Amino acid sequence: MLRTDDLFLGGFALTRGGELVGVEVRGGNGRRVAVFQIAGPDVDQAERDYFRGATSVDLPFLKLQVRRLKDKAFEALREEERDARGEERRTYHRR
Fold it and tell me: Is the pTM of this model over 0.90?
């Protein structure tokens, strides 16, 4: 399992067949960070390839995965802020 707050590493692992299994929010002193949990048989190798820099990637697919992670990160951060303020989750229905 890969745990990272690096959007590009996470996106790269997803392009290599990893699956996003969770997002947790960590940090303190006003600085909150989303940490992605990515599972899959090749995520460890993807991390090694990422840091070695000797790899290639389908750039449009990487951009799509990075965008997905950003959306999930902001969603998790907003949800934590709502929980911290004690607000209940509201669902709005369109008529």
Answer: no
